Structures are given as C-alpha cells and as structure tokens.
Design the sequence.
C-alpha cells in the first residue's frame, strides 16, 4: 500500500477549540440531518471557516487543512464534530495536541490528524503531507515538520477510510505490532 | 512490578498482561448511548454489517439530553431510538428517568467492569471502580457489535488525598482545584487514580462528582478503588453480589503523583470560558448572576440537593436570579421529596426540572440570554455551552450555587453554613 499523500492550504485556528465550538449543542436537533448541521461548523468561533473551507475544496486544486493549537476538540464525545469538519471539505487536521476522544473520532471518520509544532505553520500556507510517514512540508516557508506516529491500529483504520469500513472488511479488530 | 488500577482492569479484560502504552483488545461489560449521540451510533451499527447486538442486555439507550424533547427533530430521534430498542431487545430508559451516568451508577456499574458510552462523561462510573470511558459513535457502534473494543493502556497519575473537607467545601471544589492545577489537557490520554486516607470518608456521591470531571483534565478515566463504601452502595442498590475489592498494587508505576490535603481547600469556581480557569470563590465574589443551575451528572444527586436545601431552607432566591434544579434521576427526585428537600427548594423560589441533563448543554430548559451569567453545578463552561455564545457560565458546588442564588451574586457558601 502506498503512502497517503495530501496537499492543501492551511486554515489556522487557535488553542482549545472545543467540540462546542466546532458544533454547538444548540444545534443538537440537526444531528440526524448532517448536511444542515455542517452549515453551522465553527459558526461562533471562526465564522469565516466554513466558506473558506468550501471554496478551497471546490477549486479542486487543493484541499483545506485545518491547523489548530493545543487541545483541539476538547469536550463532548460528539463524533458529529469531525463529521462536519470533513463535510466542509477539510482533507486533514494538524494540531499541536488533540483531545483523546476527538482524535479517535476523526481517525474513525477517515480524517487524518497529525500532531506537530503548529507555530511553524501560518494561515494560508501551502502544505504537502505524507500522512503515513507523519511528515509535513510547508511549501510557503520551506520548513519540514515531523509528527508523532499513531498506533498501528489507527493507521490501519485510517487506511480503510474509517472504523466502519474497517469493520465491514475485517469483521474484527486485527492487531499487528 | 505492581499494576495500576487501569493496568489491572485492562489486564483482566484483555486476558493478558496490559502495561501502560500497550494497545489491547478488551471485553466491554456495558455499552450505552444517549439521545444526542445514539442516532448516529445506531446508524453506524446498522452500516457495520452486524445483524445483532453482542450483548443486548448490557446495551442501554438513555433519553436524557432532550428530555422532554423541545423540537420535532429530537422527538423523531427519540422515536428512532425507541424503535431500535424494541427491535434489538435492549433496555431503554425513557425521558424522565434521569441522566445516563446517574442511572449507570444506580443500576449497572460494577468494580472491574469495562464500560464505554457515547458520552464524554462516561468516566463518572470510575467512582465505582469501573474502567469507564467516553467514546465517539463509531467506536461505540463497533463495541455494540463485537462486545469489545481496543484501548491504549493509559499511564496513570496518582492523586493522593489526605485530610477532610472543611466546612463549606465539597468534592466539586476538590475536582475544580485539581483541574486548575493539572490543566484542561494536563492529563490527556492518562488515567487519574484516586487513593489515600481521605477515601475512607468519601461517599460514592462525592466520588461520582470527582470522577465525572476527570475528562475536563483530558483524562481517559478517573478511577477509584473499590472498598467498603463501594460495597455499601452496591448493596443499597440491590447488587451486593457484584462487589469485589479492587485497588492498585503497592509497587505500581505512576507518571505523576499529586498529593492533595483536603484541609487546605476552599470553595472554588471555574470562570468563563474554560474549565481550568479556576480561582477561589473569595476572589470572584460579587459577580451578578441571572441564573443558578443545580443539577447535571456532576451535582444532581441526593447529597447535592440536601446541601442546597440546607442553605435555601427558609430563604428566598434573589428577585433577579432564576434558580433551576434538576435531580439526576427519578430515584433522586423521589428521595428528595421524601426528605422534604424539594419542598424547601420550591418555597425558596426554585423551579424543579425533570430528571435529566436539563440546562447543562444549552438545548433547552434554561438557555441563557445575551450577556447573562449563570452559576452552574455542571461540568463545562465553554463559550456557547448553555445555548448562547454571548452568555457566561461559572462552575461551582451546589452550596456555592445555592448561596449565590440567595444573594443574586457569586457568594462564598461559608457565609450561610
């Protein structure tokens, strides 16, 4: 299997973006209508995010890459958070650190999350990523960033496009060390 | 080498040696969903290709977040979940029964269990010695199908508790203090394990409050050993046979040891808009509040209502402050009526909400207006949490909430005790 490669443009957010920021609880009535729910992604915390991400994904030339600071996705277990981020056209997430449940949820949705020093990435920077190897090339600044590796089981889930496709295929967890 | 509590439980459930940092597959003793995460979980379960639940009697559906439903879409989600429960043969706790975490403690959680719930506050059941953790919908869907899931065995922080709570200081003040000290991501991916001489006087109700907020420091679990107090609680709830003593080995390896002397604590507050923005109440006195909310999986239990009723008995809420009270379960409500707490609270001007999550997450029953301030006993004060990004939420104990409701401003509860 070849490495998972991505290229895109950074949309930068700050530290401590909670799942309530990503998709506020007041929209709980839209959770069974994901396209409607996705319209409200980061509505209060980063009002310009949705239109920028959609515009980037619509150009076909590059995908939006959400770049955040520390403790991205803290709070609720709502998997709707990575779901609506992905539906906005985001191809990958880069953060300094990510909350445990959010990290696992994003991978389970087939949305790559790489952890590194995001101070080295500016808003609008062009990024090239090798998700499998955990390497990021910042094409704007020329800086190369290396990221921590995820456990093999998470790489395997990501490779299948998420946990549900993984289980459909393997029918069970397959641990390889 | 001795084992931490987390290593001990995961070794047992993975039928092997689980050491911190290992990835293991563990049996799941109980899996549950609630009404805002359940519909996605069930759709994913159906998509996964599995026909039946691995453990129908240990799969529970709770309707507590929108209870009763304020919107047709949420009512339809409830219909979907009720239909699934009927079809799959799993228990459902309908609107009005109470909050999932309280009902799990009252009816299901046992020492040594592995519990996964599609709700981040699933950690609450760690109070009873269960390795209980919140997960997203995909993970819970697969746990429903397989009866197991994968875990990275967490490193543990040992929180060593000594002393006794001074007057006006409670479990909530302890956990707020700890989160302020550790930080909102200070225990990311870790287990918080509580131990020490103070446990001998720490009730299950207090342990539930503490374990509940472990996730606000980023932790995967907040674990208490199973002891005499656990045994008495299980007996009282009709499952004394499920008791087994459980504690970490003496030679266990901890990543960090944090001693806390309860004698040194004072009433604490978490300030907007971050749970780890913690200060003593004495430094924040006088902030006007338009709403006080006593309830949630953090502080909606009988002991919490007893403290609030003790302070509010014979008093009146401030004219400019709404006082909302949501018992954590039907059992809590019935007992609180029996004890006279509800009478005292209503006479003091409280609005009693149905057992459930109520105002905590901003979808009904106490949504704040622009610029309004709420003092809440819940566990989160993120911007927008109570339904309005223009509002402010402070977190505190039921005693602080009750005292503040009387004055209409943030008040040190020791002035009333």
Sequence:
């Amino acid at each position: 299997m070849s490495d998972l490669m991505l290229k895109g443009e950074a949309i930068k957010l700050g530290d401590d973006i909670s799942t309530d920021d990503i998709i506020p609880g007041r929209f709980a009535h839209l959770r069974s209508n994901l396209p409607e729910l996705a319209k409200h992604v980061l509505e209060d915390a980063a009002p310009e995010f949705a239109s920028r991400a959609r515009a980037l994904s619509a150009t076909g030339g590059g995908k939006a890459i959400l770049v955040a600071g520390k403790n991205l996705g803290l709070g609720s277990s709502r998997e709707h958070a990575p779901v609506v981020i992905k539906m906005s056209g985001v191809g990958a997430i880069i953060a300094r650190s990510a909350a445990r449940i959010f990290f696992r949820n994003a991978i389970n949705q087939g949305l790559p999350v790489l952890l590194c020093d995001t101070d080295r990435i500016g808003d609008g920077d062009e990024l090239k990523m090798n998700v499998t190897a955990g390497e990021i090339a910042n094409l704007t600044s020329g800086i190369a960033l290396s990221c921590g590796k995820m456990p093999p089981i998470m790489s395997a889930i990501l490779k299948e496009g998420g946990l549900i496709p993984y289980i459909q295929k393997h029918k069970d967890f397959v641990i390889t060390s | 080498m001795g084992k931490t509590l987390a290593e001990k439980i995961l070794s047992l459930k993975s039928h092997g040696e689980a050491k911190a940092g290992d990835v293991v597959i563990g049996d799941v003793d109980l899996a549950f969903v609630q009404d805002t995460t359940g519909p996605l979980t069930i759709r994913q379960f159906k998509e996964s290709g599995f026909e039946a639940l691995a453990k129908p009697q240990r799969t529970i559906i709770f309707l507590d977040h929108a209870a009763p439903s304020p919107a047709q879409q949420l009512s339809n989600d409830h219909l979907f979940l009720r239909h699934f429960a009927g079809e799959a043969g799993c228990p459902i706790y309908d609107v009005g029964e109470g909050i999932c975490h309280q009902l799990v403690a009252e009816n299901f959680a046992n020492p040594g269990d592995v519990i996964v719930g599609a709700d981040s506050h699933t950690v609450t059941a760690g109070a009873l010695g269960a390795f209980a953790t919140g997960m997203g919908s995909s993970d819970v869907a697969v746990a429903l199908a397989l009866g197991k899931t994968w875990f990275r065995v967490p490193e543990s922080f040992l929180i060593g508790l000594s002393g006794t709570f001074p007057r006006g200081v409670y479990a909530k003040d302890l956990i707020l203090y700890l989160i302020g000290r550790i930080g909102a991501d200070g225990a990311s991916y870790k287990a918080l394990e509580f131990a020490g001489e103070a446990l001998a006087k720490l009730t299950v109700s207090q342990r539930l409050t503490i374990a509940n907020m472990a996730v606000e420091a980023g932790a995967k679990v907040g674990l208490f050993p199973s002891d005499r107090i656990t045994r008495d609680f299980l007996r009282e709830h009709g499952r004394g046979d499920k008791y087994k003593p459980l504690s970490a080995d003496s030679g266990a390896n901890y990543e960090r040891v944090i001693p806390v002397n309860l004698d040194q604590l004072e009433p604490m507050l978490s300030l907007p808009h971050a749970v780890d923005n913690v200060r003593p109440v004495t430094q924040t006195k006088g902030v006007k509040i338009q709403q006080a909310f006593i309830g949630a999986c953090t502080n909606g239990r009988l002991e919490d209502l007893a403290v609030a009723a003790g302070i509010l008995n014979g008093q009146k809420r401030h004219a400019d402050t709404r006082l909302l009270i949501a018992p954590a379960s039907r059992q809590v409500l019935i007992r609180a009526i029996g004890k006279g707490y509800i009478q005292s609270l209503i006479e003091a001007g409280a609005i009693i909400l149905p057992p459930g999550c109520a105002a905590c997450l901003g979808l009904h029953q106490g949504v704040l207006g622009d610029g309004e301030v709420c003092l809440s006993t819940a566990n989160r004060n993120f911007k927008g949490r109570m339904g309005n990004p223009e509002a402010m939420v402070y977190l505190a104990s039921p005693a602080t909430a009750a005292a503040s409701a009387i004055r209409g401003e943030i008040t040190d509860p020791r002035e009333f005790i």
Q: What stands out?
A: Chain B has a mean pLDDT of 98. Chain B has two domains: 5-262, 269-415.
